[in-house]
Input
Amino acid sequence: MLRPRPVRVLISLAGVVAVTFAGYRLIPVNATTVGFAYLLLILVIASAWGFLEAAMSSILATLLFNFFFLPPIGTFTIADPQNWVALSSFLATSLIASRLSAVARARASEAIEGQKDLERLYTFSRAILLTDKSAPIAQQLIEKLSEIFNLEGVVLYERHTGKTYSVGPVRSEELEQKLQSAASSDARSVETFSPYLIVGVSRGSEPASSMAVRGSTMPQSVLQGVANLVAIGLERARAGDLAREAEAARQSEQLRTTLIDAMAHEFKTPLTLIKAATTSLLANPDVPAESRKEQLTIADEEAEHLRELIDDAIEMARLDTTRIEIHPEIANLKDTLQDVLASMQTEIDEHPVKIVVEPSLPATAFDKRLIKLAVGQLLDNALKYTQANTPVEMSAQVQDGIQIVEVTDHGPGIPPDEQSRIFERFYRSPSVKNQIPGSGLGLSITHGIVRAHKGELTLSSRPGRTTFRITMPVLREEVA
Output
């Protein structure tokens, strides 16, 4: 603990008096020994507290040395001229030694503070790398800066967004005007606006932002270094935003292309059947009523199938780009699985699909349309990756307030190193992406639908058996 300067001066003078008393009364010694004792004490005082304390101690020591140890004893008169030389040399030596010791102490203190500043700068540079998306990057930067450098307040103004971020005392309009002016200026010098220090933050040679710190004792060079690190952090955040925008644009374009390809493929079958029915009716207007009704029924069913495909395509696009909202209704999982099976008769082809449900499966609340879409994606995935005549099973049950739906196939399985990525958007296994058509969206959308129901979609796979399992809590009936 550093004592106040008046206390330090008094302690220093008391130390000189103590040396004098010891040399004059307790252990009588000659003048040379006392002189060296005084000099040693003054050097200790200078190295511990500074020049002022040591200088005052030197003056007192000179006076006491003269009074008690140089003849005539008990007066300030010096009889021998040589003692004048000795006394003057003692005073000069003690003052010079005090000064040198104080300078060395100051330089050592500066070196320690410089090392601490470097450590703080390093810590701050590491903190920049640990920022995340939980809050604006600029706000995280000034919070870390305030914490690491123990500042009373920090204000950061971003020129390209016009936003101001702050930590600590409430900022004033005048301070914000100063920050805006500093952010528009090419000068990088530190400006004082009591109690703040204002420094510009540039991106290369281009002014980008400005920053004000309060309660800072750091040198201007360190403040400039902090400003450079803040600039790096802001530029890193901006580069990340641009990369995310570019990735979003790329995925949006990929989604558009995928949906167009999928629509062209899926719409072909119902359109072909509708066209065949209407062409037959137009070419043979006199066909029997029973045959006419049969062909119109086919056209009507395929038109309904086509409408469902369009709805699903629109739903896939919407689910992939916005937050999924569910609209629960009271329904039965068994009926839902049968509806999925009926709507995919064309895709099922030669695959035997079996539905396994409890006889007394209760009705529960869930978004029937979205769950149909999710289960349909799982069934479509199972059908595509298994050979003809290979069975596929769908099951549903309700246990302890949890709705469980499983889709199991007996195909080759999913390699362990790919299972962690299987629900990523657009991800497809490298071993099959060029052999089996698909978009890489189905499982990702299914995962999103299940999560919107506060549930979980899990995978268990080994060669010969793969099971996708949906678990959802039973919603309260009043929710539906």
Observations:
- The chain has a mean pLDDT of 78.
- The two ends are 69 Å apart (CA to CA).
- Residues 248-321 form a domain with the Helix Hairpins fold (CATH 1.10.287.130).
